[in-house]
Design brief:
With 399 residues, the chain is an alpha+beta fold. Strands 1-3-2-4-5 form a five-stranded antiparallel beta sheet. Strands 8-11-12-13-14 form a five-stranded mixed beta sheet. A two-stranded antiparallel sheet has the order 6-7. Strand 6 and strand 7 form a beta hairpin. Helix 7 packs across helix 9 and helix 8 packs across helix 9. The longest helix is centred in the C-terminal third of the chain and has 18 residues. It is globular and about 70 Å long.
Length: 399
């Protein structure tokens, strides 16, 4: 009789190892981001309001940048349309992301500011010395009453608060009000070809509705973090968790991305960093042509990722500003390639645009830059006559 060895039932087959995430090189990330930012091709379909919504706001410390940013992104941009939306209070200028002034739709101003409110209040730690003995809740109440009675400049707001706290640091008092309350800059500040100093009131006072509960109590309606991640990826993706944290200046977003992981696609960059993206978002071929673009100082394209090499070559890092002075920049082949400035011609009138490349663009690239500058001038400087403008190349700065 032959001996046999009994064997039990076969166990479940081991699960195959997950396929490694696809790698996106620098050019692939560049073209994807330019597409999301409406810089690979100008949009012919989006209105000004829709573009500001899609981009989740535009950096707006100064008056001109939003106009320049949209001239680079919209095919039929009319500065008067943006100005009219500000005057109609459909767009507003308010401190939100990274504690800087952004141009937002009224809806986003109401919901984005509460999303970053904790971060704004944490800034006050740096002003603690100047706020000794100051009750921040009381400060918020006094400041709210003042700016809702009538829009106030920061100087006027300091004077109101100093009545209650005469020994406090005036600048710290004004900063505290700015951090504690959702303050918007009222028009005519920001309007096209009109001037106006910065005067402030609350979102609720300017847009209507009640935000009297306000930032201090945390009850103002807010954009969910999940929705914020999805909108960030739609405008800036593919991106890492750290990228979004840099954009919003928020922390501890990993759990939000993990919650959304089943709804997202994942990739890796060339250094192995995990990137997230919307499944159906555009990711153009890395060799897709990218035309020149002139951008304002502090354009969000340059500030919204922890790793900025998808737009800023490593050798040009830190060359878009000098001290506290930012420069307007231009792109060639999708990447930062130099700075530019526009000024009135002191001698013959008209407008002068000076282009200063970091490298040495070829003849064809210089011609493309001139055509793009002419197009920008036709929109922003309201001139299409060659005799009314001059486009010059400044001294070339070798990399």
């Amino acid at each position: 009789m032959k001996n046999t060895t009994a064997s039990g039932p076969a166990g479940p087959a081991p699960k195959p190892a997950p396929a490694p995430a696809p790698v996106l090189g620098t050019r692939a990330l560049n073209r994807a981001t330019l597409d999301r930012q409406l810089l690979l091709r100008r949009s012919r379909d989006l209105s000004v309001k829709d573009a500001v919504t899609h981009l989740v706001g535009l950096q707006a410390q100064n008056v001109k940048p939003p106009y320049l940013a949209l001239a680079a992104r919209l095919a039929d941009f009319d500065p008067a349309e943006l100005s009219a939306l500000l005057e109609a209070r459909e767009l507003v200028r308010i401190v939100t992301l990274r504690s800087t002034i952004h141009l937002h739709t009224a809806a986003d101003a109401r919901t984005l500011r509460p999303l970053v409110q904790d971060a704004r209040e944490q800034e006050l730690a740096g002003f603690r010395k100047g706020l000794g003995g100051v009750d921040l809740s009381e400060l918020a109440q006094i400041a709210r009453a003042a700016v809702e009675a009538e829009p106030r400049t920061m100087k006027q707001l300091r004077e109101v608060l100093l009545v209650r706290w005469p020994d406090a640091d005036p600048q710290s008092l004004a900063v505290a009000a700015r951090c504690m309350l959702p303050l918007v800059q009222v028009t005519p500040r920001g309007l096209w070809r009109r001037s106006g100093q910065v005067a402030l009131t609350t979102v609720g006072q300017w847009l209507g509705g009640d935000d009297s509960a306000g930032a201090a109590s945390g009850t103002l309606s807010t954009l969910s973090l999940d929705d914020a991640v999805l909108r960030y990826l739609a405008a800036f993706g593919p991106a890492s968790v750290k990228d979004m944290q840099t954009w919003a200046r928020l922390t501890r977003l990993r759990e939000v991305f993990e919650r959304l992981r089943p709804r997202l696609r994942t990739f890796r960059d060339e250094h192995g960093v995990e990137l997230f993206d919307l499944p159906d978002a555009p990711r153009p071929d890395p060799d897709t042509p990218a035309p020149p673009r002139f951008l304002p100082e502090y354009d969000n394209l340059l500030l919204s990722h922890a790793d900025r090499t998808r737009v800023v070559p490593a050798e040009y890092k830190g060359r878009t500003w000098k001290g506290n002075q930012p420069y307007c920049v231009f792109l060639l082949d999708g990447f930062l390639a130099g700075v530019w400035r526009m000024a009135e011609d002191a001698k013959g009138g008209g407008v002068v645009v000076t282009i200063e490349p970091f490298g040495r663009p070829g003849r064809a690239q210089r011609e493309e830059l001139v055509r793009e500058a002419e197009r920008m001038l036709a929109r922003i400087a309201e001139t299409s006559s060659p005799s009314s403008y001059d486009i010059r190349f400044g001294s070339v700065v070798d990399a």
